Amino acid sequence: MAWFEGGIVLLAPRMTPGGYQNLSVTEEAFVPLSPPLYKCMYPKAVVISCEDADARFRLDEPSLEEIDGHLFASGDTLVFAGKSSVSGFKAIATTSTPAALRCTYFY
Q1: Distance CA 18, CA 36 (A)
Q2: In whole angstroms, what separates CA 24 from the centre of its chain?
Q3: Which residues make Cβ contacts (< 8 Å) with residue 19, sequence separation at least 6?
Q4: Nearest to 103 by CA among 33, 37, 38
Q5: Per-position DSSP letters for 23-71, written without gaps between them
Q6: What 3-state class would DSSP assign to 72?
Q7: Cβ distance 88 to 59 under 8 Å?
Q8: What are the pLDDT tens digits along the chain (107 aa)?
């Protein structure tokens, strides 16, 4: 994976894009990713874009009372590689406006 000004380039040798998901994230609770299986495989990486509102994300197991995390601003795109990062990702909206997360999974 490599970054350049104005966007990203995802170098994914031996990985196939095989799943897409839209998530609506509210300020009520952290929402985990729920990637589809592709040919009986769990994703190795994910590209996530945030739209409509800001959110916060965590890669650990936050308690129900915690609403802290890394800022994921509307318009930002994140790339996570590794099964533990994909399975550990959880997001929560920062305001009453739900954030829309667009996820493409790589297998």
Answers
A1: 8
A2: 12
A3: 35, 36, 38, 43, 103, 104, 105, 107
A4: 33
A5: EEE-SSS-EE--PPPBTTB--SEEEEEEESS-EEEESS---TT----EE
A6: strand
A7: yes
A8: 444 455 556 666 678 888 999 999 999 889 999 999 888 889 999 999 999 999 999 998 766 566 789 999 999 999 988 899 999 999 999 999 999 999 999 99
State the amino acid at position 55 in one-letter form: A
Nearby residues of 85 by Cβ (< 8 Å), 6 or more positions away: 59
Q: Which of 93, 75, 84, 79 is nearest to 27 (CA)?
A: 93
Structural domains of the chain ordered from first start: 13-106 (2.60.120.10)
Q: Which residues contact 82 (CB under 8 A, 6 or more apart)?
A: 44, 45
Question: Token match 């729920």: residue?
Answer: 34
